[in-house]
Amino acid sequence: MFATYLIGLREGLEATLVVSILVAFLVKSQRRDRLPQVWAGVGLAVALSVLFGWLIEYTSTSLLSRSEDRELFEAITSVAAVVFVTWMIFWMRKAARTIAGELRGKLTEALAVGSLAVAGMAFLAVIREGLETALIFYSAAQGAAGDSGPLLALIGGILTAVVLGVLLYASALRINLSKFFTWTGALLILVAAGILKYGVHDFQESGVLPGLNDLAFDITSTLDPTTWYAALLAGMFNVTPAPTVLETIAWIAYAVPVLALFLRPTRRTPAPAAAPAAPSAAAPPAASGPAVAASPAESTSPDATSTTTVTERGADTGTEAEADAAATPQRA
């Protein structure tokens, strides 16, 4: 259940941060009248994500009658979930530095178009996280048929993320998003490795891959599957006492290189030296318009080292990069 809780927490916090950026921008821009459209888009995205999750489950349990077809369907969804997890983790690491500014720019354009554009922009900003959550949850919770524990754990993770997002928005909480996304990202990579291992096993059971009875090792006598710690390892990372050779190869071939790539230090481009300002009688007037420019220091990057707050008085959401933090001390 910890794996599904982690999925809900990670995906839920990403979606919550996105919504917080949109809401804070509208509040600062004195466009509270557009908040209902934002919430309508968010609600529609949540509803479609739930429908997508139900459709996956219904397809597996009702539309596919042969056990081989169900195993093949579960294997394919497992591989797709691993692809989504890997893409999401590395995309967040790379693109989150500019996500706040990009969202504000898109929302400014949507405000100029109309209410439907605002709702559509909010919908698109949240639907990706919702669809990913539904697919990853289904793959992570396979084998728990009739057990409501994984679903409750997922809901608990999402609720925790919502509470954290509300506290961040109210400036009542500061968390180090760098450490949060690094630790949760590493744990999700291990969860994804277990999902891939499960998918390989399903491919073997469906007859697509051979070697179902070729065990890599058997430590059942040491790691009793009936014990609580064995169930915990199996539920979190799909570590089983008697895996097949192909399952073991798949787990190692994914977990080791992906973890190494994710945890390697990132190189930072040094900030260019400021050119000396030419003497001027007066500064040029500021451009008019409803847009609020996002400063380079604003980000939700997992590579950043400072904390994050979202305030109703200002639309600034994100963390400061190390270079900016070194140049401008952060006010408490």
Description of the structure:
The protein contains ten helices and three strands. The chain is mostly helical and 332 residues long. Strands 1-2-3 form a three-stranded antiparallel beta sheet. Strand 2 (307-310) and strand 3 form a beta hairpin. Helix 1 (2-28) crosses helix 4 and helix 3 runs antiparallel to helix 7. The longest helix is centred in the first third of the chain and has 29 residues, at 35-63. It is elongated, with a radius of gyration of 23 Å.
Tally of alpha and pi helices? 10
Order of helices and strands: HHHHHHEHHHEEH
Residue-averaged pLDDT, rounded?
77
Enumerate the strands of the largest sheet in spatial order, edge to edge or round the barrel: 1-2-3
Report the sheet-strand fraction: under 5%
The percentage helix is: 55-70%
End-to-end gap: 37 Å
Based on Cα principal axes, name the global outline. Answer: elongated
Structural class computed from helices and strand pairing: mainly alpha
Largest sheet: 3 strands, antiparallel
What's the count of strands?
3
Radius of gyration: 23 Å
Name the features.
2% strand; 10 helices; 332 residues; single chain; mainly alpha; 3-stranded antiparallel sheet
Element layout with pairings:
Elements: H1 2-28, H2 35-63, H3 67-95, H4 99-113, H5 115-140, H6 149-169, E1 175-176, H7 177-205, H8 228-237, H9 245-263, E2 307-310, E3 317-318, H10 322-327
Antiparallel strand pairs: 1-2, 2-3
Helix pairs in contact: 1-4, 1-5, 1-6, 1-7, 2-5, 3-5, 3-7, 4-5, 7-9
Task: Tell me briefly what this model is.
By secondary structure, the protein is mainly alpha-helical. The chain is built from ten helices and three strands, in the order H-H-H-H-H-H-E-H-H-H-E-E-H.
